[in-house]
Amino acid sequence: MQTLLHPQAGLGKLSPMSGGDRPGLFTADTITITCAADSRAHEVPDAELAAAAQRSDGHYQALCGHRVAAAPMVEPDGEPCLLCAAIVERTSPRRRARILR
């Protein structure tokens, strides 16, 4: 199962992780980019950044689906996008603490 996050084929897809103890879990490497329009720090997949370089329209598709117009990168990040944060939290692998007795 894959989730398509961008209308163009092959962009923004979350790839299945190998191993781990949560089958069906997906992950994507992301970069945090603050949007000039909503001042929120969104998580943008690496693959989307690469594809956006080909389009040169200056917009990126975030995990949450928001179309990000990048704010100047010399400024601090804005408040995190709660939906992006929830997606990252949900799709990040969690390590179980080993209990040694």
Total number of β-strand segments?
Answer: 7
What does the largest sheet look like? 3 strands, mixed
Q: Roughly how many Å is the radius of gyration?
A: 15 Å
Q: Hey, roughly how much beta strand do the residues contain?
A: 15-25%
Structural class of the secondary elements? alpha+beta
Low-pLDDT parts are 1-13, 15-22
Spatial sequence of strands, sheet with the most strands: 3-4-7
Tell me roughly what share of residues is in helical segments: 10-25%
- Give the N-terminus to C-terminus distance in angstroms: 38 Å
Summed over residues and divided by their number, the pLDDT gives a mean of 76
Keywords:
globular, 7 strands, 3-stranded mixed beta sheet, 101 residues, disordered N terminus, 2 helices, alpha+beta, two-stranded antiparallel sheet
